Amino acid sequence: MKNCEKKKKKSLFSKLTSKGIILTLQLITSIVFLRYVYVLKMLPSKYYFIIVIVLFLLLLIEMIWITSGARKKRRTGARSRIFFSKLTSILLSALFIVGSVYASIGDNFISNITSAFMQTRVIAIYAMKDSNIKNVEDLKGKTFGIENEKSISEITDALAQIQDKIDETPEKKNYDDYAELADALYDEKVDCIIADQSYLGVLETNHESFSDETRVIYKMEVQEKIEAVTTKTDVTENPFIIYLTGIDTYGSVSTISRADVNLVVCVNPIEKQVLLVSVPRDTQVNLNRNGKMDKITHSAMYGINETILTLEDFLDLKVNYYAKTNFSGITNIIDALGGVEVESPYKFTTLHGNYEIKKGVNEMDGDKALCFVRERYALPGGDFDRGKNQQRLLMAMLKKAMSPKIITNYNNILAAVEGSFETDMTSDDIKSLVNMQLDDMADWDIFNVQVTGEGKISYDTYSQKGKKTYITVPDKKVLNKIIKVIDKIEAGEKLTESDVKGLN
Fold first, then answer.
1. Which of 34, 120, 282, 476 has fewest C-beta within 10 Å?
2. Distance CA 452, CA 382 (A)
3. Which residues 6+ apart lie within 8 Å of 318 measured at CB?
4. Element (H, E) at 149
5. Angle (deg, nearest 10), helices 45-76 and 80-113
6. In this prediction, what percent of the chain has a pLDDT beyond 70?
7. How far is CA 254 from the centre of its chain?
């Protein structure tokens, strides 16, 4: 009876490991893998056809190897050849399955970070950390300070939600601007304030440590649709411009907030050249929405479209795409890359994190890198040197991302980027760029320029009217030279070092 059962089990195992089953499995997994690679559209045709041929040959070799092994087994009883041939086929099938999964993950990742159509406006209720207000229930009977001009409909909605939660109509005090609103909280004229978080910079006008000294009691998030203002193009045939921004928040990258990093990336795919234009956050600009003077960082408080349109006016160009990240994004991506090496021309200590930066090459994890690119007070050139450091970090990240070692941390990197990066480029745009690069494996020339100017104190910025605000008045000669260089890129002409001399 036992022998019978053993024979049945052996028979089942033999069927599952038969030549037909194993080769069919290899054939199916090969087809599935080829399908996923094809759908991904990132591999040039010449390489795709090579893979097709290689997979066909592998299948043919396995058929011959397994067949000859079976014949040898029948003739001599030797099992080694057929064992190893079947094992190899199974391992190849497993490899194709893993490859298919990776290709699928990559395709889903690109789809998830592209075609950004929404942005998030956050309305928050703040109280002092040392107050007795710890949660929503503690808001009952308290006086709310509100600013009576900006985001008023969203603030009204948030107040209505609070009214439902505490079962009473909140007492309100109105203020003319956010700086006065913050003063009222600190001076205990109100118990708490309700504010649009995108105006955090204005709340910090007279209180630099506002975020550390206050507590968020309640948040309301409002989703806003982003109407397209960028102009799409064929990224493999025509020059194009990407606005790359880093906002000064943690958490969701879709949150509306100030633009701490402003890089205009001008790409000429024909000449294989990239021009990085850094616009310091304090640069004086005229807002597109009303022509009023403000800082470029403040333009982002009115949504990413406002910054794009303002930059188009300022640099006399047309933005084709935008890409957006935040504090969380920078730290997550760099940590997923396994850190980066950044060369600093100066020795200094960062204000945030208190990191010691040495002159020369510095190994940085995500937090150290973030503190490095946020620093301006310890640098001789202030915000201008910070802009250069931002370019240095970007180049270090690109260098690390192009390293073969990235494959070993593939999933972690994709997860980090997906949660902290978004762009309005289509997945086809990104795939075609990757396809182009893999096709010709070209070396790219990268040029760096920076808008410079003179720092001054102003009381006339639109966002902080009447309040003391530091701005940088752009040097008109430098600005005009940069515009000419951008025009050259847009026209598809080749840049030389002489074109950017004195601009970096």
1. 476
2. 11
3. 231, 241, 312, 490
4. none
5. 160
6. 90
7. 10
